[in-house]
DNA sequence: TATGAATGAGGCTTCATTCAT
DNA sequence: AATGAATGAAGCCTCATTCAT
């Protein structure tokens, strides 16, 4: 059970193995229900070694949060290619986000569920990451407005409220996409872009947002929502 | 500390006291960190009595989830007055939602954080409630479309995707509103309606949604959502 | 092994059983080497009950120290019958002291060895007891001097230095008496009284001993106690 | 922190560094609370090397005890210059004793507190040292008596009882002097010499003290030391 | 209806000690 | 001569749960 027992690894490698095991265990069982015993076994290592390298359950959990938070923000930042127009950046950033959360469900569970549920210290850790993402999204929205030669006076406070809502919706959709078989990251991103860009009001007015076509992209091709042809 | 020690109460009353204590404790400490000892003390009752009435920690937690879920859905359903037009219903339903979550932070923590974080059994319990709400919102959106004489062929699947997003955003905003001092339920509802109805696209087109003034409502006075007619 | 397993005792009784077991275990094994498991078993009780009543190993140890300290001071105070002349009081107090330490070797080990060796907190606890005893002895010495119509100006500071030395010697002799088979409490008390009353000087009739002046010596010069000229 | 990390030292030197670190750690933390990790780090050496040289924690502790015991007895023996008269020898021996314990508080803690508190094996080790010192003091007392042309028949058993008391008092005073700022070794030695030489009896001129006869008393009858008849 | 007394089980953490180089 | 990597064993503590009244 767990990793193959390879002896005498350099510390850095072992630490990553331990974090892997910890993220999986914390993600599945939850922070409190996860036992250090289980984590150590899954890492193919004795418990004292885990303590030697990671100090305590709290520290281990914090290390998990930090690693996963960095991985997620990195994925989003890389996904949002800065050479694209802002709306496309947003869309591809969202796609990267949903792709990452789908590929790392345990990491996502650690960040979105566990870290928020077990104490202010951990919650603060993810709050920092979230703030970073919200700021990033805010910049994208402002850039989009600029590109559209629109509303140069948009107050940042206003926009960051919208960014909050957008990020919040994205988080919820990530859970939903993970829980709903057959929903791809692109579909989730498209749904959210439609929701965010056009709004329900537009939907009823017949205007839709069109996802870009996906040449050479990493994920599945099909868009989720049938997009009617844009109004002329 | 805890409830005043009144002896010999009828069972139904005692049970509610216990559930009150349990919700508070589960909400504050989390499911696992909450101890039956603390709950019993807070309820002003001995531990064996808790077991006599509620059977086990799991059953107690399930009872909490059920009670809080019912209270929340009830609040939303009552808030959304069926005699109003659909968009107004949605707005007032959201307001009721944010009002309830603000007034019952522990109950909301139980439903939104704890129940989703500690095992499939509990998660299923809230999932059922959520599905109910999503269905309700879906109906409201469809009704709104109907009232606007729009898109009679909107497929329910499509709309329920949007409903998902809307509910997801609402959940996130509830946390945000609870954590941000000075944000009222009405403000939260308005923010979300703006986001949902007008979308970011509208924002950049310069169109804004204005909250209606408020005649005879239970909460703050302002009326609901002014939906501007879609631009031709 | 351990106490006979009698079920369902009132708390006060169980607590004493636990303290008995704890004093024995701490006295024999030492504070750190004593395991809560062993104490619980010796008390005929499960470990959680020990924690329920005594809170922690530290608290349990503190409770032991307090109980044994009280018992010892009480024994001494009762032993020194106040109606006797002061020297007799001192002698009978010492006898009571040696009797008690001989009869409660574990309690004595807890006070004299363990409590002083495992942290300031515990040490302070016995220091308080010791101070009380030193004060008591100081009073006895002063009373003896008064009864002998001697040196009414004896400064208390001076005398309490002697009391310190006397108590220190008594403590050491208690260990010695316990370790040397065939030495009774009365013998130990007599030895000490002889030493204290007559001194070695009498033994060799050299009367007062004068410290040499300190030419080229390493330490500070002043002698501490001003030695009064020998009685005529 | 700890010793400067110098590589490749000859074994003898490394061993002393380890013992230095061990004595400090054992003295401060106590035998059980001291960890081999801490000792190794303080010695500026890896743990396996400590085991290579000193074998085990027990052996290491024993080595500490032996080194410190030898150092202490050596200091006393050197301090008591044999060319002086016996009383002077005693005084300077005591001074050397108090000087040494004041300069090596950790070593003294190891000998006086730790070694006596953690098992018969270690206790025996210091008991040997103590016996040696008691014998030495006994000889000094006998010599003093001889020099005073007194009591040539003093039985050694009697005197060694007094030596016991004297040494016990010295041990206690060493702790007291270390704990009381401003008390020098010479002062401590003088206090003890005064106490021993003049006694309390002189203080009140009551000369010899006679134990009461023991009618109906709880303890064993025999007094230990034959008390010579009081001077007229 | 209600509770004081009691425990089996399990989790976090630390330590003395060794292996392989 | 010296060490980075690793672990078996054990200790403190807490908890959900029950018994006997």
Order of helices and strands of chain A: HHHHHHHHH
* Broad structural category of chain A: mainly alpha
Q: Indicate the mean pLDDT of chain A.
A: 84
Q: Which quaternary structure do these chains form? A: homotetramer
Q: How large a portion of the residues of chain A is in β-strands, by DSSP E?
A: under 5%
Q: Would you kindly provide a written description of the structure presented here, covering whatever features stand out?
A:
Four copies of one chain form a homotetramer. Chain A is mainly α and 232 residues long. Chain A has a domain at 65-204: Tetracycline Repressor, domain 2. The first copy, chain A, contains nine helices and no strands. Chain A has helices at 11-29, 36-43, 47-54, 57-79, 86-103, 105-117, 120-147, 156-179, 185-205. In chain A, helix 1 (11-29) crosses helix 4 (57-79), helix 4 (57-79) crosses helix 6 and helix 5 (86-103) packs across helix 6. The N and C termini of chain A lie far apart (60 Å). At the C-D interface, helix 5, helix 6, helix 7, helix 8 and helix 9 of C face helix 5, helix 6, helix 7, helix 8 and helix 9 of D. Chain A binds a DNA duplex (21 and 21 nucleotides) through helix 3. Chains A, B, C, D: InterPro entries: DesT_TetR_C, Homeodomain-like_sf, HTH-type_TetR-like_transc_reg, HTH_TetR, Tet_transcr_reg_TetR-rel_C_sf. Chains A, B, C, D: Keywords: DNA-binding, Transcription, Transcription regulation. Chains A, B, C, D: One of its GO terms (biological process) is negative regulation of DNA-templated transcription. Chains A, B, C, D: Residues 12-72 form the HTH tetR-type domain. Chains A, B, C, D: Residues 35-54 bind DNA.
């Amino acid at each position: 059970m767990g990793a193959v027992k390879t002896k005498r690894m350099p510390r850095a490698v072992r630490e990553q193995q331990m974090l892997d095991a910890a993220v999986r265990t914390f993600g599945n069982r939850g922070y409190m229900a996860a036992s250090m015993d289980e984590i150590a076994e899954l890492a193919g290592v004795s418990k004292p070694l885990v303590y030697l390298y990671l100090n305590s359950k709290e520290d281990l959990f914090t290390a998990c949060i930090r690693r996963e938070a960095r991985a997620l923000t990195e994925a989003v930042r890389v996904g949002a290619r800065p050479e694209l127009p802002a709306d496309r950046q947003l869309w591809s950033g969202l796609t990267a986000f949903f792709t990452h959360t789908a590929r790392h469900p345990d990491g996502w569970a650690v960040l979105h569920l566990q870290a928020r549920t077990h104490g202010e210290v951990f919650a603060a850790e993810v709050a920092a990451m979230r703030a970073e993402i919200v700021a990033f999204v805010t910049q994208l929205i402002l850039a989009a407005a600029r590109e559209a030669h629109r509303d140069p006076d948009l107050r940042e406070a206003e926009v960051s409220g919208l960014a909050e809502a957008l990020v919040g919706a994205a988080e919820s959709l990530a859970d939903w996409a993970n829980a709903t078989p057959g929903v791809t990251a692109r579909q989730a991103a498209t749904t959210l872009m439609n929701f965010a860009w056009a709004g329900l009001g537009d939907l009823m007015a017949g205007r839709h947002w069109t996802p870009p076509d996906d040449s050479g992209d990493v994920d599945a091709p099909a868009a989720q929502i049938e997009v009617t042809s844009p109004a002329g």
